[in-house]
Here is the input.
Amino acid sequence: MVTLSPGLGTTTGGFHSRISGIAGYRPERVVTNDEVCEQIDSTDEWIRERTGIRTRHRAAPDESVVDMSEVVARRAIDHAGLTPSDIDVVLLATVTHPYQTPAAAPEVAHRLGLTCMAIDISAACAGYCHGIGLASDMVRAGSAVNVLVIGVEKLSDFTDPTDRTIAFIFGDGAGAAVVSRSETPQISPTVWGSAGDQHRVISQDDSWVDVRHNPDIVFPTIKMQGQTVFRWAVWSVAKHAQETLDRAGITAGDLDVFVPHQANLRIVDSMVKTLGIPDHVTVARDIVTTGNTSAASIPLAMSRMLEEGEIASGDLALQIGFGAGLAYAGQVVVVP
Here is the structure.
């Protein structure tokens, strides 16, 4: 057994955490269902009935994950009343940065004029909530005062536009939040986990090694078993959402806001019913105009709802992300 020296430096610990700022970024181009259907055998009516999606945003061809991250990071930092120099850590959640290495986060940090710890999180649609959980723990432990958490995706780069099963689902965008030290607890313990036995339910269809050695594979794209994901989200993830409420010491009736990952409008509505979310709770339904933006969906939805006055600073919100892995993470937070 190793005994540490009494003089060894350590963090103080015992702090509270909060989300001090939040922001979203939607690329300028809006893509309708009719445009998507130009390359697949489907209709606007079928897509709306199955998913609730009417439109989604597409990044410009030369607009990268890093570009979108920089824009939304500056907005979130400004909303928090801080400057980039106040940021101690950058956590960037994405599965669509096109480089195996290096990560996107260090480049984003550099653009912000920072040399702090900066890493990517690969947890797909649950990535942002993983980032909030990690950031909260870092702030509470005393290893950071302000942590920038970004959720960003350019899913159009990894989606086959001719694949009828998935081409209409995804959108591009970015969301970000700053997690800061607080005098009172404003982020609950995170409930998170994975179901790795179902890792093929949502996955890249071919590995990069397959691409290298098989000339018939042009580029790997994302595939999804929709019905399996639907059942998992409605039953298993809903139970984890209830566990999140329990860990926070509240009930669904105490909430002001519910922001689940924007995967599918039917999933959102089914989770509301399963959890017994009361009518007075404002529910995020950004999926209708933004599509499924994976790691970006929760901060995109919350920031828009705040900007448009659907929710207010100080409201109590349940947020939970779920997706490929299969992975999930959620917490109750106070709206900044």
Notes: The longest strand covers residues 172-182. The first helix runs from residue 33 to 36. The CA atoms of residues 262 and 287 lie 5 Å apart. The mean pLDDT is 93.
